[in-house]
Design goal:
20% of the residues lie in helices and 39% in strands. With 236 residues, it is of the alpha+beta class. The chain is elongated. It binds zinc ion. Zinc ion binds next to helix 2.
């Protein structure tokens, strides 16, 4: 990849300088480094602004194409070699960070407690959606795990991320419980750890402490079949 992914090391970076590496179809921009998270792993992309001199280009979508992170801006004008300044829509990103950590917390408690597996998950700005392979479906059971999650998210429990060699990482039970696709031939996995609660292979952005998650609220639960249950949450 051409781009240095600054958000992987520091998910709290709100601004950065960068150089335009390439421009495709006038509006799709690859940078030498970026704070913008590209859509993937159940986490929506960031939005924000790329500023060149006094000109502002709104970043409307960020995705990975042919292995490169491409920023789609709302108008033409940026050129290869341009020195730019990037600014995140931080309110959106921070909500997604809180949601992503909340998702790991809840999934871990439910999966460890019931043996269920997560078969799908999608974060949105306003809610978190989960699909579980879970036969014994009961609102009281769900409420119990939400209460447990909220008890933990009252505490200042640290959330860390680090790399582990793939072979070593795969020995950790439940390390890939979120059904998030992993690239097949990578030597190391990025592990997100809620200390004492969960370790998960993950490429997303997270908060530093469970206390930042806030309160998790169950919105809706529905059965999509014998083994497929769908649950919606939000954080407040
Ligand atoms: Zn995740």
């Amino acid at each position: 990849m051409l781009t240095k992914t600054l958000f992987m090391d520091d998910s709290y970076l709100k601004e950065c300088n960068a150089v335009v590496v390439s421009v495709k179809d006038q509006k799709n921009i690859v940078l030498d480094q970026t704070i913008f998270y590209p859509k993937g792993g159940g986490q929506p992309c960031d939005t924000g602004k790329i500023i060149k001199d006094n000109e502002t280009y709104n970043v409307v979508y960020v995705g990975k194409f042919s292995g490169e992170i491409s920023h789609e801006v709302d108008r033409a004008g940026l050129k290869e070699g341009d020195k730019v300044h990037c600014v995140l829509n931080w309110a959106r990103r921070y909500k997604l960070m809180r949601s992503h950590t909340a998702a790991h917390l809840f999934a871990s408690l439910l999966c460890v407690g019931t043996g269920a597996l997560v078969t799908g998950n999608q974060l949105e700005e306003d809610y978190i959606r989960f699909d579980f392979n879970f036969e014994n479906f009961d609102k009281e059971i769900l409420a119990q795990y939400v209460a447990e999650a909220n008890e933990l998210s009252n505490k200042d429990i640290p959330v860390n991320w680090f790399e582990l060699p793939k072979q070593e990482a795969m020995k950790i039970p439940g390390i890939i419980k979120m059904a998030e696709a992993l690239p097949p031939d990578i030597p190391a996995l990025r592990i997100v750890e809620i200390v004492g609660v969960d370790r998960q292979a993950d490429g997303g952005t997270h908060v530093h402490s469970l206390r930042e998650v806030g309160k998790i609220e169950l919105l809706k639960a529905e059965s999509k079949g014998k083994n497929n249950k769908r649950v919606y949450f939000k954080i407040t």
